[in-house]
Amino acid sequence: MRYVALIGDQEREVELTELAAGRYQLSMNGRTLQLDARHVSDTTLSLIWDQQAFNVELEAAPNGKGENILVRGHVVNVEVLDLRTLRLRRAQEVKAVHDGPAEVTAPMPGKVVDVLVRDGQEVNEGQGLIVVEAMKMENELRSPRAGVVRDLRVRKGDTVEGGVSLCVVG
Amino acid sequence: MAPTRRFKKVLIANRGEIAVRVARTLREMDIVPVAVYSEPDRIAPHVRVCFEAQPIGPAPARESYLDVERVLDAARRAGVDAIHPGYGFLSENAAFAAAVHDAGLVFIGPPPAAMRIMGSKTGARARMKEAGVPVVPGSGGPLATLEEVRAVAVELGYPVLLKASAGGGGKGMRLVHDDAGLESAFRSARSEAKSAFGDDTVYLEKAIVNPRHVEIQVFSGNDARTVWLGERECSMQRRHQKVIEETPCVAIDEAIRARMGEVACRAAEAVGYVGAGTVEFLLDEQRNFYFLEMNTRLQVEHPVTELCCGVDLVEAQVRVAQGEPLPWRQETIVRRGHAIEARIYAEDPSRNFMPAPGRIEDLLLPQGPGVRVDCGVASGFVVPQFYDPMIAKVCAWGEDRERARRRLVRALSETAVKGITTNNVFLRRLLESEPFVRGAYHTGTIAELQAHGEAEVPAELIDVAVLAGVVNAHRRDLRAARTHALKDEQQAAGWRSQGWRRGGG
Question: Which of 32-91 (A) contact B at CB < 8 A?
Answer without folding.
Answer: 35, 37, 39, 41, 43, 45, 47, 49, 54, 56-60, 62, 66-67, 69-76, 78-82
